[in-house]
Design brief:
- The protein has a two-stranded antiparallel ribbon. The protein has a two-stranded antiparallel sheet with strand order 3-4.
- Strand 1 and strand 2 (about 10-15) form a beta hairpin.
- Residues about 235-239 have low confidence and may be disordered.
- It is mostly helical and about 240 residues long.
- The chain has a domain at about 30-195.
- The longest helix has 30 residues, at about 35-60.
- The protein has helices spanning about 35-60, 70-80, 85-105, 110-130, 135-150, 155-175, 175-190, 220-225, 235-239, and strands spanning about 1-5, 10-15, 195, 195-200.
- Helix 6 runs antiparallel to helix 7.
- It is globular, with a radius of gyration of 21 Å.
- The two termini are about 20 Å apart.
């Protein structure tokens, strides 16, 4: 634990900082275990939707349409056939416009920021669909991914970048491109450390005992049985 001054106010930074801690919050330990576990799982699902949904949609629409249910395939194909842009460029364009509106909302005064968000979501989106520039299914996919990205707001910058790369990989190589990109990202994450502690602990290296506070939050009786020290992870013992 390190104390620093931020804008003249003392703050505390807890190190090492691990990947699984992005999905944990103080509220988890004041709620019932079953509700805390539900919120944790919800955060992980939202994270994967925010990163992979636009890319998987692009890969399905361009390379693997057989994976769509029949009814959804008919509606999606009809919607995409009425737009002039390829699905990959369409997803990238909508995502880019959304990021522009988000940055505009952050940079201007708050009352105007809300107005920009409402105008962007309702007027621009509806007008683009009505004019046939973008499809309604693509707009819905991008909007869903954008909303899910705010569930883990601390991870928004990497989520945004990975989303663009997933769309490009899915548009160029289909699902295989997304799989290869995911493998590369996982290798990179597993190779990182935070103050000598593996960044992906307790997932890699795997620790079954510490899983009681990763995807779920066990009850206090289970959490208090054994104290887990990050210094005991395999990599740190070798250092």
């Amino acid at each position: 634990r390190v104390a620093i001054l931020i804008d003249g106010t003392p703050s505390v930074i807890i190190i090492p900082h691990l990947f699984v801690e992005e999905f944990q919050s103080v509220d988890d330990y004041s709620n019932r275990p079953y509700y805390a576990a539900f919120i944790r799982i919800l955060k992980y699902i939202s994270f994967f939707i925010a990163v992979f949904l636009p890319g998987i949609y692009t890969a399905f629409a361009q390379f693997h349409p057989e994976y769509f249910p029949t009814g959804l395939l008919v509606k999606t194909s009809d919607s995409l056939s009425q737009t002039p842009l390829p699905v990959t460029l369409e997803v990238i364009l909508i995502t880019f416009i959304y990021e522009v509106m988000r940055e505009a909302g952050l940079r201007i005064p708050k009352p105007l920021g809300h107005a920009v968000s409402i105008v962007g979501a309702l007027v621009i989106g509806e007008s683009a669909v009505s004019a046939g520039i973008i499809s309604s299914s693509t707009l819905m996919v991008v909007a869903t991914a954008a909303i899910c990205s705010y569930v883990t707001s601390a991870l928004y910058p990497p989520i945004m970048v990975l989303r663009f790369f997933c769309v490009i990989a899915g548009g160029m190589f289909g699902l295989w491109g997304i799989v290869l990109l995911t493998c590369g990202v996982l290798v990179n994450m597993c190779s990182k450390t935070s103050v000598g502690v593996p960044y992906m602990s307790s997932l890699a290296p795997f620790s079954w005992r510490s899983m009681r506070d990763v995807f779920v939050r066990a009850d206090w009786k289970s959490l208090s049985k054994h104290t887990i020290k990050v210094q005991k992870f395999p990599e740190t013992e070798e250092m």
